[in-house]
Amino acid sequence: MRSNITEQSDTTVQSDITVRSDITVRIVDHAASDSAVLKAARVSTVGEAANREERGEDYTRGLIRYLMRSRHGSPFEHTSMTFLIDAPVFTVRHLMRHRTWSFNEESARYREVKPVFYVPDENRLLRQEGKPGHYRYVPGTAADREQLLLSTARAYGTAYAEYTRLLEAGIAREVARLVLPVSTYSAVYATCNARALMHFLSLRTHRPDAAYVSHPQREIELVAEQMEEAWSELMPITHEAFSTFGRVSP
User: Which of 20, 42, 195, 204 is the catalytic position?
Assistant: First the structure.
């Protein structure tokens, strides 16, 4: 969902803002294949000849399944994928907790932030029930949704108006950004290898058939689902083995 909102805030400051519900991920560069895993694994037994070997799909599948089942993870590290993510800041921060990745993010020190903010779409579960560690999320009512849209419009309009006021007063961008919410959209390059991606997917997707069922926040799960789709096309045999053996990183 995308829309432009002009909202009168409680401080009588008016600002044009854009709200979005989409979170986008696309792969922009890669050196990732099932054959790369095969060659990295084979070097341990045949040496430099591994780089010249030609092996069929059945052999590759069998070896990769063995590596996954036996938790031999290092051959999967000889791959690389770079994703470009456009997401709210709080989701980018979830991503950056995965410290084996490399990141470069849009900087609010060096450019003026655009008035683009996140609001959940109508499918987002809004209410939380239960104790810490045992939460469950349930749909909100139409009134909940209406209140969410109203409150975010007011907050975003006020925040961006104050941000603009600070810039116009000559305050540095790196200071003026303090008034912006974590729902502000940001762009980030994220690079990982297949082993790191599998670890990320094991934690950031909810799959009842996983060996260890995870319960991620929905916004970071949207990132993970798009990454997994792109990765499955690059390394279908590895992805198949990952899914078969409990979605656990080797």
Answer: 204
